[in-house]
Amino acid sequence: MKQVIVVNEVLKLPRGKLAAQVAHASVAAFLETEPRDQMAWLEEGMPKVVLKGEDETALRELEQKAATLGLPVCLIEDAGRTAVPEGTVTCLGIGPAEDAKIDEVTGELKLL
Asked: What is the rounded CA–CA span in Å between residue 47 and residue 106?
């Protein structure tokens, strides 16, 4: 079990903003996950990986692919109070789910 967060790299978010957006994606995707898988992931120590996504289009494509595979997924759109305009797609959370299923969606992406 793992969770993956894909970051919209074109934004070049400041570190603090990036950390907050990754946290939003992690929690939101977790809340979309079946309770059985939530518990399994928690018991494994909540493994997660943060990856680079090219841009908003790439994140939306990954979201569709993950949803098609039945993975828990949540696209994060910023509230627009600080570094980016309201509605800007910053991150995509996928999982927690089985590693192999998530790798079908994000296996080609590079680590942040």
From this structure: 15
* Tokens representing residue 12 in the block: 């070049």
- Reduced to 3 DSSP states, what percent helix, strand and coil does the chain have, rounded to the nearest 5? 45, 25, 30
Tell me the mean pLDDT in the region 42-63.
Answer: 98
Output the pLDDT for position 79.
87
Q: How far apart are CA 14 and CA 69, in angstroms?
A: 32
CA distance 99 to 27: 18
Instruction: Return d(Cα 53, Cα 92) in angstroms, integer.
Output: 9
| Helices 56-68 and 99-106: angle between axes, nearest 10 degrees | 140
> Which amino acid makes up residue 7?
V
Domains defined along the chain, listed by start: 2-106 (3.40.1490.10)
pLDDT digits (tens, 9 = 90+) for 60-79: 999 999 999 999 999 999 98
Prediction pTM value: 0.95
